Every structure is written in structure tokens, then in C-alpha cells.
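WARN retry 2 of 3 for item q-0093 after timeout on previous attempt; input resubmitted unchanged.
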Amino acid sequence: MPLRSSTRWLLCFAGLTAVACSSRQGGQAPKVPVSVARVEHRAVPYQIGATGTVEPMRTVDVTSQVSGSLLRVHFAEGEEVGPGQVLFEIDPRPYRAAAQQAEAALLRDLTQAVNAAREAERYRVLAQTNTVTQEDYEQKRAAADALAATVQADSASMSVARLNVEYATIRAPIGGRTGRLQLHEGNVVRATGTSLVTINQLRPILVRFSVPAAQIPDLRRRAGRVLPAFARASRDGAVPAEGVLSFMDNEVDTTTGTVLLKARFPNRDGALWPGEFVDVTLVLDVQNDAVVIPAQAVMTGQQGTYIFIITAEGTAEQRTVTVTRTVDSVAVLADRIPPGTLVVTDGQLRLTADAHVDIRAGPKTEAAQQ
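OK item q-0093 returned
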């Protein structure tokens, strides 16, 4: 009697199920695809990261000490100037005339003082022989002393007048980059008035940053040592500048709970610019022969932190580890793991103990390739 269509379908399904079950029982579980990296033993710096602000080593507002018409500006805005370079020239003619007048007054009073001193000396001799009275001598002596004091005052006036002539030529007190001009040629300059230009010293340059007060003991233990510092600007392609720690404040900011630090950078290429924000890394020490793995290889579970390592048979083995710190993208372990050991960096969530792996990315061993 021919079989019904539904009966035939049931028999076929049962046969396929039996074949599938037989296949699963006779084969291995599928391999888990993972990415791996090798355990490394290398020197790792112990460092502090912070955000800093670039500031000039020195800033000077150039002002005039004399008043007058601004005749010439000897530099362009934003130009680099050297110490002692002539920046401005104020009309010196009134000050030269005053200097000549002071010099003439000094010569006049000096001549009178010399004659008065001679007259006083002559009267001193005459007074000893009673040719003149003592009172006459004292009057001559007082006149000579008064003229001598006048000469001193004239000498001081002449020095001031000559100094004003020098002040009419304004020179750069420091070397650096000039800013925006406040006054231009033809303007009247007032003594001790508005700043004519601001000069920022860019070489060397400082970076100001703050670190938590908890870092103070580490910093104090390394007092007197040269601590390297690196500053990277936020601009694309910026290369980190290398400098040294140069200043630690003597108090903690009670508002932020941080302490102010400054690092000095040569800035020979002028990459660091006053006012910009930079990422600062202060290196306190270097840990030699540290055990490091990619930070993404570390997992966290109920028992703490752990990793998966790949055995010589190509299976995954879970191992508990202790992470002492993370530097950039690597984790520093307190555990001694042989260098070259393969650790899983991607695919951990699909792994179980003794699971076979299929390494899709990273270094491979012959056992793992089988």
C-alpha cells in the first residue's frame, strides 16, 4: 500500500535529524574567532597626565619714560626682536636742548664755585694774621660751600637731561615676539602712559598645569631630580615638545584640590604658542622589565580582572591578573607572564575555558593554526 505524502515527510525529517545528531556527536565544537597580541616585557614610564596652558617665560609691556611725538617705529607688528634692539624713536630735540642748557649751567656754576673756593682759602690765610675778621672768612666759606652744592645739583640735572635723551630712543628690554602696536608714527606718547607694544619671550617657554594633591608625595620624593615633561598641542599632526619640570607651587589650591606645576620647554621651533591648551605628560620614573599587554585584553568579572591566554594546543585558558596601572593603551600587570604569550584582545565574550580558537588577527603559533 503506498505511503501517504505526510508520512514520507516525517520519515525524511527523522532521517535528517539522526544524521545531524550523529555528526555533532562525532565532531568537535566550532572554533571561536579571536584577535590576539603577545605579552611584552619592556620599560614603561610612571607618568602623570594633565591639561596645561602655555605661557611666556617673560612678558614685558613696553612704555615710554618721556613724552613727545613718535617719530619712527623700527619693527613690524608680530616681528621677533632681540634684547636691546631699537623699537621706537621719540622726538629727542627738546631733551637735547634741555641737556645742553643743563651742561651750560653746570659749567657756569662750576667756574663760580672754583673762584669762591679760592676766595675762601685766601680769606682763611688773612684771618690767621687778623687782616680780615673771622666773620668775613666764614661768609666766604659759606658762599663757596653753597656754590659747590649748586654744582652738584647742576650735575644731577645734566645727568637727568642726558638720560631723557636716551629715553627718547626706546629699546627692547628682552628678546621675543612683539604683539599689536598701540600707537603709530605721528601719535603723541605720554610718559608712563599706555603700553606701546607687548613682548612675549617664546624661547624658552613655560607650560602651566595642575595635578591632584595626592601626587605631592611622589613629586617630593623626586625633588632635585630632572623630571622630563612632554607637551602636545591639540593641532593635527603636532609633535610632542620635550622639556623639564621647573616649578612646583608651595600650596594646594583649596578650591580644586590641586597643586600648580610649570614645565620649561626650549621651544626652538616655536611650536608652543602662549595661551593655547596642550596635553602634558610628566614622567616621574621608569619601570624596567614591566609585563604589559593591550588594555583591551583585560576583562572584569565577579572574581576581579582576568585575561584569556592561548595555550600551545590552540585553546583558551582564563587567568586572573592584577593590573597595577594603565599607560596609554597598554595595561601593566603585577603578574609574571612569560614574554611572547598570546592573549586574546577581541572575542573574549564568546570564549569559555578550553575552547578552541581561530586566530583571525594578530600573531599566530603553529598550534593555533591547526
